[in-house]
Amino acid sequence: MFKNLLFSTLFLCVLISCKKEKEVQLLNSSNYFDILNKEFSGDLAFETTYFVEKYWRVVGNTGFNKSVYRVAEQLEKSGFVNEDKATQSDILTYRIEKRPLKSPTWESVNAIVEIEGEKTPLLQHSTNRNMIAMNSYSTPKRGVFAEVVYVKDFNTIKTIDVKGKIIFVETSPYRVFDEAIVKGGALGIISYSNPKYLQPEKNSTSIQFRSIPLNEDVKSWGIAMSYKAKERLKTKLLKGKVFLKVTIATNIYSSEELTIIADIKGKIIPKERLVFSAHIQEPGANDNASGVGVALEMATLTAKFIEEKRFVPNRTLTFLWGDEIVSTNRYVAEDSIRAKNIKWGISLDMVGEDTQKTGGTFLIEKMPDPSAIWTRGNDKHTEWGGSKMKLNQMKPHYLNDFLIAKFEEQGKRVNWIVNTNPFEGGSDHVPFLKANIPSVLFWHFTDQFYHTDNDRIDKVSKTTMKNVGVSSLVSAYTLLNANKRTAKSILKTIESKAVSRLKEEQKLSEISLLKRDSLNTEIAIISAWNDWYIKTARTTLDMVNDSTELTKNIEETQKRINLMSSEIIEKLKRTKRN
Asked: pLDDT tens across 397-426, in order?
């Protein structure tokens, strides 16, 4: 009897234990951060980055296409079905779009530049894979041998006899190609133009990639130099004439443009969607193999949650990998009905940096707000640069402050620095914004290895990719299942951010007035931020069907913001009078 009781007790304990092991935690807005921090490892993101960064990627070339098919392979492993084979019941689908390229694609193979009479090469492809300017043709297999002519002022090229010679310029080779090669008959171009933010004297072997026009008639070439190579060549030229032997091997051929798009279909409102875009082309690890990798782990982890019935998105989540700006622009422009239902677009570009090595910080580049007109205080442009915008270019929307708040929450959890910069452009957020779709850029800058051949896997941090991936998915899941409660929560965030912003702008305006700056300008700045947040508050309506209750909340928020702005302006007027 005792043995039977003991056996039954043990059996019951085993059953309870097994049941607990099988229990899975469903995702909801209260546990997104906890679960995602536990389950987003960064492993697939890093492995994908490692695979992609091996290739010098130009749309249509071998490395670009291998990267596309690598993404497709991993999507299939995680349960995505090719659209050609998919049924209406499939939630996880992907497709590879193929289009003929109008121009040939290009890829570097090998190169070496040697100075006559010296044993050590000036440059070689094995250590500087960015040395060949994109669109360069191959030289004869034996190479070419010619005198180097240094042109200090590229505007004087037309007055110099460069025919049959190699011209050395300290500017972009693209800039002088027509005058030197097409008109002047130069054999090729050797150039140096690394910007100061790359710290060239410190990173003396770095070469920032360059390009020349693809010209089938002259079939010429360009070589970009590192600071070290440039200094060596200039020193040699001081001693007299210099002759170089240049040997280049490239492939130029007809190809097709590939774009891969993965969809995770929403259950309730499948037509509405959030799109993450990560461009494949460019030769670096951080730029942008890291974006490709982070987007892929985001997609596959979400697929895992769906297969395990732990998460159900109400709206569709889309991932796009392709040619920077071109693929995203086409996705937005080619289908007006689809574009109308893209509620948010986010660019993942340079999102894996080990900032201890690269410098800079993680940045959210905001949608155009008044900081892109009056850039002051904590708002700073990066060294990539941006032009001053106008009031009619502003894009008031809750996406800015919503995303900043989510990323800052992850930052507090793991001691990760999150900063912002005013709008500058130059990535896949631009096509969305041009179509009036709310969009931001996730990236890093200033990166001392940006666009150089030292942007390799050793500059990538799996921890950073995890932080970006977790924050992005928390934000995405919140938006995909956004409802009245979400809208009210975001509205509170907007009001809080508006108060903080207006207080900060008041301090800055008071300082400006003490310096005898224009009162009208300071009033314009406060008014612009007031207008931004008044309009931003109203954009929360896009998350609800019944707007009656939320409209009342919005109007109350707007009144408080208006009142605060009016009080600040009156205080500024008194400050000016005093």
From this structure: 999 999 999 999 999 999 999 999 999 999
